[in-house]
Amino acid sequence: MKTNAYSQMIFSDTDLVDLLMQGNNINEYQNMLVDSTVDIKRIVDLIQDADSISTWQQETESSLTVEEFDKQQQSSWKMPDQYKQLDIAEHVLSLCTTSDQLQRAGHELFLYQEKNLFDLLRYLKYLVDVMTENSIIWGVGRGSSVASYVLYLLKVHRVDSMYYGLEPEEFLR
């Protein structure tokens, strides 16, 4: 599998056959991009299920710049409606137990809001919930993201930035 300039996965014929042979439900892969050299009809004939592949698309050059593509993708987060409608600020603040925590989280939430990143926080909440429900282990945290106390409260990482005196501006520049 390869990716294009927009970091979208491009499936080859081998990738498609592997998915099918592994028993994956092809309907879950709607709007997937398929390498332009792939003969989709041949694969459809192989699996004899043309309806399930009707939503696949051939990879084509986009008229969008990478920046335009990123902006477009950031406006359509793929997560359940309950997360899209979550008041993330209220949720984060409800996780605080002291006035210092409330003050720090409130300050960071203001910075996130200034940068229009509340959808990102909602998605991270969804991602952490899915990983937790499926017993998926992820790292303790790395880089400047550990400076965010909000991300610590959402359990994206396990480094208490207040304890270590890390400033949120280190992450949210």
Task: Describe the fold and architecture.
- The chain folds into 2 domains: 2-74, no CATH class; 81-170, no CATH class.
- It has helices spanning 13-21, 40-47, 66-74, 81-84, 88-94, 99-114, 118-133, 149-153, and strands spanning 2-3, 9-11, 33-34, 57-58.
- The radius of gyration is 21 Å and the shape is elongated.
- The protein has 173 residues and is mainly alpha-helical.
- Strand 1 (2-3) and strand 2 (9-11) form a beta hairpin.
Labels describing this entry:
8 helices; mainly alpha; 2 domains; 173 residues; single chain; 5% strand; four-stranded mixed β-sheet; elongated
Largest sheet: 4 strands, mixed
**Helix count, DSSP H or I runs of 4 or more residues:** 8
The total beta strand count reads 4
How are strands sequenced across the largest beta sheet?
1-2-3-4
Query: Which structural class should the secondary elements be placed in?
Result: mainly alpha
Spans of at least 5 consecutive residues whose pLDDT stays below 50 are none
Radius of gyration: 21 Å
- Overall 3D geometry? elongated
What pattern of helices and strands is seen along the backbone? Answer: EEHEHEHHHHHH
Instruction: State mean pLDDT (0 to 100 scale).
Output: 83
Share of helical residues: 40-55%
**Strand portion:** 5-15%
Tally of structural domains: 2
What gap, in angstroms, lies between the N and C termini?
Answer: 34 Å
